[in-house]
Design a protein that fits this description.
The chain has 106 residues and is mostly helical. It has helices spanning 20-28, 42-52, 58-71, 73-76, 88-95, and strands at residues 6-7, 10-11. A two-stranded antiparallel ribbon has the order 1-2. Strand 1 (6-7) and strand 2 (10-11) form a beta hairpin. Helix 2 (42-52) packs across helix 3 (58-71) and helix 3 (58-71) runs antiparallel to helix 5 (88-95). The longest helix is centred in the middle third of the chain and has 14 residues, at 58-71. The radius of gyration is 18 Å and the shape is elongated. The relative contact order is 0.11.
Length: 106
Amino acid sequence: MNSAPCFGGANLRDDRGSDAAFITYLKNEGFLLNEVEGDGNCIFRTIAHQMVGDKDKHERYLRLACQYIRINHRKFKDFLLTTYEGCIEQYLAKMEKNGTWEVIWS
């Protein structure tokens, strides 16, 4: 039997195959949905919005993420794309540029 995806008992599949049922469910549960600009900073804008209520404060969270990776580089080096050949500093040099989202893992 092929069942529809379910979240908290709500059927999330609708006839249009869109996210409309999921969005309706979230709104009914009291969640607020906010649009975030897809400019390469979107993950950090989302974090800033959740942490301090201001998407424009995203640069702080970008710096914190890069600082964490730099300090804990041994945890990340085995996951770098082959483009970086295990070089965290090369990855971070690109990642630290505003508007750059760079996937770390291969």
